[in-house]
Structure formats: structure tokens, C-alpha cells
Amino acid sequence: MSRQSNRTTDSKKMNSELFTLTYGALVTQLCKDYENDEEVNKQLDKMGYNIGVRLIEDFLARSSVGRCQDFRETADVIAKVAFKMYLGITPSVTNWSPAGDELSLILESNPLVDFVELPDNHSSLVYSNLLCGVLRGALEMVQMAVDVKFAQDTLRGDNVTEIRMKFIKRMEENLPAGDE
Amino acid sequence: MTVHNLYIFDRNGSCLHYGEWNRKKQAGISKEEEFKLMYGMLFSIRSFCSKMSPLDMKDGFLTFQTSKYKLHYYETATGIKIIMNTDLGVPNARDILHQIYSTLYVEYIVKNPLCVLGEQLSSDIFSTRLDLYIRALPFFSPRAA
């Protein structure tokens, strides 16, 4: 391996239909395994979280983004770099709360739901809830606790998909206990 | 020029990996003790540097050198810290440490579901690749100076 090799920075091509169908199969299986939609939502969030805590390392390795100065910069990087890199879309960042700690990511199109219709008996299923978990897990690794949820979803008849993100606190790095 | 040793710490201060090449003199304390001292020193020096800085700084502490060796420090936003000790002839090694992070740590540890994050790295392929990478560095050979 040569030092100059930089293969991690080129984005690998992948069939987006295969990706969409795989995600669909995953959600379908969860719906079979768990009784109610709430439980499925929870599982999706948990899986997303576990993806997020690892995905952030990949993100930092592939992009040359450093530590963000504030939450606005973070939101920008998420929308313009991270979403672009992993889903090929660029959501717009809007609806800032006056205090600057809450924002919305508006997804014009959501690649996860390309072939999806929600059946009537799954009305409370948050189909793309995995994304919330990913965001939460990834941001937690960079010392930011956030709350993420879907505010609007095209699957439920809304015009756009909206992810609402709320900044809770900055987690401080501490010396391990017992060390002087 | 040569490389003496390399530490990888996680955000909680546990040493995930330690590798040693041309280190002729040991510290005379147990490895656990040494890791603790190293992490404690880095923790203090980092907070000292950011307190002393006249401007808000992004990267912060990068390196220090003594009359005998040079310590190179690299930290990611997720708190993974890579420390490499070399002799004085080695130039800026930030790119190299970033490479170790992005092509070795992320590829072989983070993307390996069997590697539990935050535990001591047990992946053989990682250790082997890291060893090869370090040995292939242009300034590795002690005679190159």
C-alpha cells in the first residue's frame, strides 16, 4: 500500500434501486418480526444509531471536514456534504428556531421511499426512521446530543419530507475516572 | 530518521493499539502506566493550548519535540487520537497520521462489525497492515538519515 493511495475518497458507485429495495426488505422483515409500528420505529432508530456511530468515522475519513464551530455549520455540513455523499441528495436547511437550536432538513425527494406505499394498517410506521438514528448516532460521536424526528413525510401525503433536529447539549470530553 | 512508537487512543482515554519499532529504551514503567501518563499529558496539553491560543483554533495541538524525539499528534472530531513518536529529522506527519486513520483504522476496524468500538483492537489484519505501512514510510529506515 502506497502512501499516496487515496481510494477512500472516491465515491463507489452503487445501484440506487438495489439500495432502495434492500432497505424496503429490511423494513418489511421488521414489520413481520414486531407486533406494532412503534416497536418497528424503535428498532429502525436503534439500527440507525449503530450505523451512525461508525458511519461518522467513514465520513471524517473521506471528507476533509474538521470540527464545526457551531450548530449552523454542522447543519450545513450534514445537508451539503453528508447527505450528498451517502444518499446523493442535498436537503435544504430551514425553519430555524429563534434560539438557533432547532432546524428542519427538507428532503425534496427521499431515495428510501422510491417504490413505497404505506398500507392502511401501518399508519403509524415511520418508514425512514433509520435516518433519524443515523443522525443521532453520528452527532453523538462528535460530542453533540441531538433529538431527531420526522415532522413531515411524503408517504403520509405531505408535500415534502421534513426531518426536525433539535440540539440538546454539547457533551464534554472528560479525563477517565481515577486519573490524575 | 526513524519511527519509535505509535499509540491509538479512543475518546475515553483507553489505549486501543500500541505499536513499537525502533525504541531502544523503555520507560521503566508498566505499559498501562505509560498509556495513562501519555493520555493525561495529552489531555492537559490540549486544554492548555486552547486556553493560551490568541485565536479560536481548529486543529489545536499538533506536535512537540525534545532534544531527542518528536511527538506527532492527530485527533479526529470523534476523539480518536493517534500519536507517533519519531526522531527529530521527520517532517510534518499529519498527512501520514490521517492516512493511518482513514485507510487503516476506518477500513479495518470501523467497517469490521466484529470489532467492538472502544475496546482494544484485536484485528490481526489491522496490526499487519499498520506495521507494513510504517515500515514502508520513507523516513522509517534508521540509516536514511
UniProtKB/TrEMBL annotation, chain A:
Name under which the protein is recorded: Trafficking protein particle complex subunit
Record Pfam families: TRAPP
Keyword annotations: Endoplasmic reticulum, ER-Golgi transport, Golgi apparatus, Lipoprotein, Palmitate, Transport
CDD domains noted in UniProt: TRAPPC3_bet3
Family that this chain belongs to: Belongs to the TRAPP small subunits family. BET3 subfamily.
Domain of life: Eukaryota
Entry's localization field: Endoplasmic reticulum; Golgi apparatus, cis-Golgi network
Quaternary data: Homodimer.
Role: May play a role in vesicular transport from endoplasmic reticulum to Golgi.
GO biological process, any: Golgi vesicle transport
GO cellular component: endoplasmic reticulum; Golgi apparatus; TRAPP complex
TrEMBL record, chain B:
Stored Gene3D superfamilies: 3.30.450.70
UniProt xrefs under SMART domains: Sybindin (SM01399)
Location within or outside the cell: Endoplasmic reticulum; Golgi apparatus, cis-Golgi network
Keyword terms: Endoplasmic reticulum, ER-Golgi transport, Golgi apparatus, Transport
Main location as per UniProt: endoplasmic reticulum
Gene Ontology CC: endoplasmic reticulum; Golgi apparatus; TRAPP complex
Annotated GO biological process: endoplasmic reticulum to Golgi vesicle-mediated transport
Glycoprotein is among the record's keywords: no
Entry keyword Ion transport: no
Superkingdom of this protein's organism: Eukaryota
Family note: Belongs to the TRAPP small subunits family. BET5 subfamily.
Its job: May play a role in vesicular transport from endoplasmic reticulum to Golgi.
Classification via PANTHER family: TRAFFICKING PROTEIN PARTICLE COMPLEX SUBUNIT, TRAFFICKING PROTEIN PARTICLE COMPLEX SUBUNIT 1
Known partners and oligomeric status: Part of the multisubunit transport protein particle (TRAPP) complex. The heterodimer TRAPPC6B-TRAPPC3 interacts with TRAPPC1 likely providing a core for TRAPP complex formation.
Protein name per the record: Trafficking protein particle complex subunit
Species whose genome carries this gene: Salmo salar (Atlantic salmon)
Gene name, Swiss-Prot/TrEMBL: trappc1
